[in-house]
Amino acid sequence: MSTKMGVKSDAMVSGDHFGETDSDTADQLLTSLGYKPELLRTRSTFQVAFMSFVLASVPYGLATTLYYPLVCGGPVDIIWGWVAVSLIIVCVAASLGEITSVYPTAGGVYYQAFMLAPMSYRRLAAWVCGWLYVVGNITITLSVNFATALFLVASVNVFQAAAGEDVLAGSAYQVFLIFLGVTLICNLTFAIFWTFVGIIAILITVLVVARHGRNNASYVFGHFEVNSGWRPGWSFFVGLLHAAYATSSTGMILSMCEEVRAPATQVPKAMVLTILFNLAAGLVTLIPLVFVIDDIQYLISLAQPVPAIIKSAVGSSGGAFWPAHPSTRARSHLRYWLHHRYITLHLWFLPRRRHSRMVIQIALGLIYFGSSAAFNAFSGVGVIALTAAYSAPIFVSMLEGRKTVTTGSFYLGKLGWFCNIVSVSWTLLVIPLFSMPTTVPVVDPSLVNYAPVVFVGFTLISLGWYLAWGRKHYIGPPT
């Protein structure tokens, strides 16, 4: 069945099937895959790539998590960690692109895992993949909004009181109220260009003013300084959470399959192109900041070091107020994190409306009152779950010898095997890696990484619900 559909998709996306347009053939293909076309196909490859790039808001994601590579390896971890992870994600994007050229639906990895898996366990494969995708997006969206709240607290505190005290104490109730405001704003506004123009302006100012001078190139690209307590090699890897978090929206591009004219060819190309855009944007953000870092020991004592870096460089509290807007990154997840039309798991907690999803985020945010460390685990869990969800159809495709992807219009041949192996290996590394505490020894409960506890908890809920209900009633997506 999979092979037949793959052949059909390859022929139909050629654009000359009975003289019909790309949009017509794409709609026919979608119908053959079990879905009714409902969206207008108006986007080009570049539009999809640019929109995905903007929604991912990589500069913002890197700014709010700079603490991790700063404490785990310094400049080398910040710059080369970002480059390394970006190249790995290119392999993930290329691997998913191959599969998407065969199954170009907005159901993405959930639908692909179901179609590629053997009949005997395809329902379980789709169930697990769907759970990973939903949980990953819930936790990532939550962490984005809370990171924004913490970042705003740090930005406000560049304006210190007369006695040198912070303007905001950053108590639990203050952070939660700011988080509440951020969550509401993310559902109401969309300030993409304001965010990016502001970021570029600040980074140029940082390099030009550089009140304490600039570090030399050998420091920026070659200085390695471990302050995490881990051995140097492992410490470098632990710091990669920074880059992995910023690239966690990679698979969201698949949700645009029904908005482009020839999704079997356009979406795979757009996925790879987006990662290259992200790589460049990340370097443009990180390199200026590393050039003006002047006191790593002080910066790692802060949860959000970027406002302090900018203030030190420009010598002005007002100039250090970062204008990043969370809606750019969070809204991508809010829009694509759950397509109930596709992920029909019939789980009790799956919301059907945007406002319901917002209520879930706010409810989960209450965890911060109990333990900030437990909440911080959500960023790690989000990365682990999404990375695993992205690799699920890739792994299943490898098990079948990549037979189905050979029928697609984005088949990469032997290079595809390489990309698949890198993608799955990255997932196997991510699961234990981001379950580790950032620093050791762990002498305080606030330093504990609760990511494995949260991840195992969601896994048990998923398996329990499958055994209790899904095994008899869940039938998977339409085919």
From TrEMBL:
<dbReference type="InterPro" id="IPR002293">
    <property type="entry name" value="AA/rel_permease1"/>
</dbReference>
<dbReference type="GO" id="GO:0022857">
    <property type="term" value="F:transmembrane transporter activity"/>
</dbReference>
<feature type="transmembrane region" description="Helical">
    <location>
        <begin position="358"/>
        <end position="375"/>
    </location>
</feature>
<feature type="transmembrane region" description="Helical">
    <location>
        <begin position="411"/>
        <end position="435"/>
    </location>
</feature>
<dbReference type="GO" id="GO:0006865">
    <property type="term" value="P:amino acid transport"/>
</dbReference>
<keyword id="KW-1133">Transmembrane helix</keyword>
<dbReference type="GO" id="GO:0016020">
    <property type="term" value="C:membrane"/>
</dbReference>
<feature type="transmembrane region" description="Helical">
    <location>
        <begin position="381"/>
        <end position="399"/>
    </location>
</feature>
<feature type="transmembrane region" description="Helical">
    <location>
        <begin position="447"/>
        <end position="469"/>
    </location>
</feature>
<protein>
    <recommendedName>
        <fullName>Amino acid permease/ SLC12A domain-containing protein</fullName>
    </recommendedName>
</protein>
<feature type="transmembrane region" description="Helical">
    <location>
        <begin position="234"/>
        <end position="255"/>
    </location>
</feature>
<dbReference type="Pfam" id="PF13520">
    <property type="entry name" value="AA_permease_2"/>
</dbReference>
<feature type="transmembrane region" description="Helical">
    <location>
        <begin position="46"/>
        <end position="67"/>
    </location>
</feature>
<dbReference type="InterPro" id="IPR004840">
    <property type="entry name" value="Amino_acid_permease_CS"/>
</dbReference>
<feature type="transmembrane region" description="Helical">
    <location>
        <begin position="176"/>
        <end position="209"/>
    </location>
</feature>
<feature type="transmembrane region" description="Helical">
    <location>
        <begin position="275"/>
        <end position="293"/>
    </location>
</feature>
<feature type="transmembrane region" description="Helical">
    <location>
        <begin position="79"/>
        <end position="103"/>
    </location>
</feature>
<feature type="transmembrane region" description="Helical">
    <location>
        <begin position="124"/>
        <end position="156"/>
    </location>
</feature>
<keyword id="KW-0813">Transport</keyword>
<keyword id="KW-0812">Transmembrane</keyword>
<keyword id="KW-0472">Membrane</keyword>
